């Protein structure tokens, strides 16, 4: 009688959120502030940043949602569900309601206002009183 191994190793490489959820890869924890203060390991930050790596079809098809794949977001991790797909466990399934902000770069650069230059014909700005 042949015996087969009942253990099968399944390796998944895609997480597809269902409903109004996104998958976010958490950014690395910063353990030092800009001023040089080193934070202890037990310091828990209640709101963290990350990159959206996958969005659900419900969000993708909703024209009112502005969140897109690869957006950098600020999210509340308290109700985020960790996904053990990567060895460092930085993936979270997050409800869209727990995404607090989206970081965007402004594409609009204010054009410098042109300075009033003389016409070169002697009359500054065509203020003639010709009748």
- Count every beta strand, where a strand is a DSSP E run of 2 or more residues: 6
Q: How are the strands of the biggest sheet laid out side by side?
A: 4-5-1-2-3-6
Determine the oligomeric state from the structure: single chain
Helix content bin: under 10%
Describe the structure.
With 131 residues, this protein is mostly beta strands. The chain has a domain of 69 residues. The protein is built from one helix and six strands, in the order E-E-H-E-E-E-E. The protein has a six-stranded antiparallel sheet with strand order 4-5-1-2-3-6. The mean pLDDT is 77.
Structure, briefly:
The chain has 131 residues and is mainly beta. It has one helix and six strands; from the N terminus they run E-E-H-E-E-E-E.
Main attributes of the structure:
131 residues, mainly beta, 6-stranded antiparallel sheet
Write the layout of secondary structure elements.
Blueprint: E1 21-26, E2 48-55, H1 57-60, E3 72-75, E4 81-83, E5 91-95, E6 99-103
Antiparallel strand pairs: 1-2, 1-5, 2-3, 3-6, 4-5
């Amino acid at each position: 009688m042949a015996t087969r191994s009942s253990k099968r190793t399944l390796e998944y490489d895609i997480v597809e959120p269902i409903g109004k959820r996104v998958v976010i890869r958490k950014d690395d924890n910063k353990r030092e502030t800009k001023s040089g203060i080193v934070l202890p390991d037990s310091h828990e930050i209640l709101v963290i940043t990350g990159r959206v790596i996958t969005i659900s079809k419900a969000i993708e098809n909703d024209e009112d949602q502005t969140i897109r794949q690869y957006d950098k977001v600020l999210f509340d991790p308290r109700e985020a569900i960790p996904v053990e797909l990567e060895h460092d466990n930085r993936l979270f399934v997050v409800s869209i309601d727990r995404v607090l902000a989206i970081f965007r770069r402004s594409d609009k650069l204010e054009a410098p206002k042109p300075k009033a230059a003389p016409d070169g014909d002697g009359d500054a700005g065509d203020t003639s009183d010709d009748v």
